[in-house]
Automatic annotation (TrEMBL):
Domain of life: Eukaryota
E.C. number: 1.13.12.7
Cellular component aspect of the GO annotation: peroxisome
Protein name: Acyl-CoA synthetase, putative
Family indicated by similarity: Belongs to the ATP-dependent AMP-binding enzyme family.
Taxonomic classification: Eukaryota, Metazoa, Ecdysozoa, Arthropoda, Chelicerata
Length: 274
């Protein structure tokens, strides 16, 4: 095996097992990742355990049938999703106005390529078109491109949290939580809140190292986030220490399952704005 391709959660599982068991895979030279951003902690873990010569981010979607963007070959690149492939066009628009956005402006990624499907089949009904009248597929993903034309993925638009009328990407908060040495996994979801509209709420899995894990307390993590991020990104919905993060069959984090899990927990003691 010379190449491993997977979602961040899958790569994390492989590297963690290697660290815990002492196993090595010297034949692996290339890593490829799709389906989400790679945290700083996971970057360090992958580089230390697998020691790849190449790390490539891929961005794609089922409707596109093939990768839409990818980072250059023979490089180690974590912080972007690269450049469009052959015969693929991407634009970034303001979702509310449809206005075309420029470098650095966050908006919805829209894709036009010959491989995009024409529509979604519906039993007993006419197919639902997948693209608009100009042939653009609206991905539902928030992103931007820089001055070099390199694209960056931010978050699924449906996951954006509206806190005090500000748009908050859960990944921004998750990245800070994962800086803590006692945190193995973290996911942030929106919960309804009477004061801020939607409150960022975190679920955290501690590391198996008992000494480090014990330092990842709710108060410690609240302070970590509050010390680095703007007030509207604070964890007003609280921090919950859990045994595991729910994932889909293909290894992606299931935010909907975590929200359902939250409904079964006592929430008032975690509310910062009581």
């Amino acid at each position: 095996v010379t190449t491993i391709c997977g979602f961040p959660a899958m790569l994390n599982h492989i590297a963690t097992q290697m660290k815990e068991t002492g196993r090595t895979f010297p034949s692996v030279k290339k890593l490829m990742c799709a389906g989400g951003s790679v945290s700083c902690g996971l970057q360090e873990l992958l580089l230390h355990q697998l020691k790849p010569n190449t790390f490539r981010n891929l961005y794609g979607l089922s409707e596109g049938l093939a990768p839409i963007t990818y980072t250059p070959a023979n490089e180690i690149c974590f912080d972007n999703i690269g450049f469009p492939g052959c015969n693929i066009r991407i634009k970034v628009i303001d979702r509310e106005t449809g206005i075309l956005l420029g470098p650095g402006d966050h908006g919805e990624l829209c894709v036009r390529t010959p491989s995009v499907i024409k529509g979604y089949s519906r039993k007993g009904q006419a197919p639902l078109p997948a693209v608009d009248e100009d042939g653009w597929l609206h991905t539902g993903d928030l992103g931007f491109y820089d001055n070099e034309g390199c694209f960056h993925y931010v978050e699924r638009l449906k996951n954006i949290i509206k806190c005090f009328d500000y748009n908050v990407a859960p990944s921004d908060i998750e990245a800070v939580l994962l800086q803590h040495p006692g945190v193995a996994e973290a996911v942030v979801v929106a919960t309804p809140h009477r004061v801020c509209g939607e409150a960022p709420t975190a679920f955290v899995v501690r590391t198996k190292d008992l000494k480090l894990g014990a330092t990842a307390t709710e108060d410690e993590l609240q302070e970590l986030v509050a010390g680095q991020l703007a007030f509207y990104k604070h964890l007003y919905g609280g921090v919950y220490i859990v045994e595991k993060i729910a994932k889909t069959a293909n290894g992606k984090i299931s935010r909907e399952q975590m929200k359902h899990h939250l409904s079964n927990l006592e929430n008032t003691s975690h509310d910062l704005l009581q």
